[in-house]
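Title: Prediction job returns without error message
Component: structure pipeline
Severity: low
Priority: P3
Assignee: unassigned

Description:
Job completed but the reporter wants confirmation the result is attached to the right record. Sequence as submitted:
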Amino acid sequence: MKQPSLYKLRGNVRITVTGEKIEALINLLTEQGVEIWDLRARDAHTAEMNVLLPHFFRLRPLLKRTGCRMRVTKRNGFPFFLDRLWKRKFFLGGMLLFIVALFALSSMVWSVEVKGNVKIPSDVVLAAAKKEGLYPFQWGFRLQSQDKLSKQLALALPDVTWVGVSKEGTTVTIQIVESAQPKPEPLLNPRHLVSKTDAVITNIYAEQGRPVVQKDMRVKKGQVLISGILGDEENTRTVVAKGEVKGLVWREYEIEVPLVQKHHTMTGESKERFYVVLGNWAVQLWGYGDTPFRSYDTKSDHKPLTWRSLTLPFGWLTETDLETQDRQEQHTEEWARAKGLEGARNDIIAKNGKGTKILSEKILHEREENGKVYMKVLFEVEESIAEELPLVPSQGE
């Protein structure tokens, strides 16, 4: 016979029936509309079947009429599950209470952090936030929207350009951007500007001081470019030499680039484990089982609950296993040459500033050996060559 709909929700029992008139009993059950299924005969006088729980109590008069006897062998379905839970009601109540308490604690604001403030004290920001209803042990659902809080705090705090409010877990972060104030000019001692390397002058601009070199002049390291001494031999005055001097500099690089590049990459697959942390103990809630990856990196994210400046001894821990793979990529000598030259150019600009220009480059020597490309390259670079040299007032030039 067909299984009735929702039989697990309605509940059912597995019974064993014995007697001389089992066939008559089955016919009576069919006539009375008692739903049975999975009927199996053990022998001529014994049979097993499933019966819906609501129909189970209608079996007794039918059994008396046929002289059969019945024994329950198995109970299934939602009503029996509820019965087992009720027998463990104190355990169930404790679990529900723990879940409710955990949800309530995670819905509260445990700490408020202030970041980005330099001149404005954190206490001033926290006091303004408290007036807007943002403070520790406040319920999260009672907070205003983050945009509204940001606007109200920006109006309440002086010398603030922007205020951002963000909530992550039980922590609310107030990000401050203070108004920019002009920096006071530092007091500088008299100085020369001298060359920091051998070069050929390409451009000189003296904002303050006396230029002592000209364009296309070759200079040595340490030679004065803009003098901080003004006047003649009888009347002199020392100043802070200011300006910009650029020159041509030749730099030689030894470059080494492997032809085989190794890459350690993520595949995008991951597995998470979630724990509740109580002191030095961590109780795993889900994510059981071995990690299915042969190669992986593990990332841990521990979020303890905090109260003001105190870190409480419980919180949450998430461990994520990120699947990785190592692969090798074979390149050509042309690729290695381009990669090496690009790295050398970036190094030159990083060391000498954005105004640096690479005018030319010449490969003096190149060879491929042991899976690597070796090069010696000469670069012609236009860069700023001036550096400061403090000037002693009694020093003559």
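Comment from assignee: result matches the submitted record. The CA atoms of residues 99 and 105 lie 10 Å apart.
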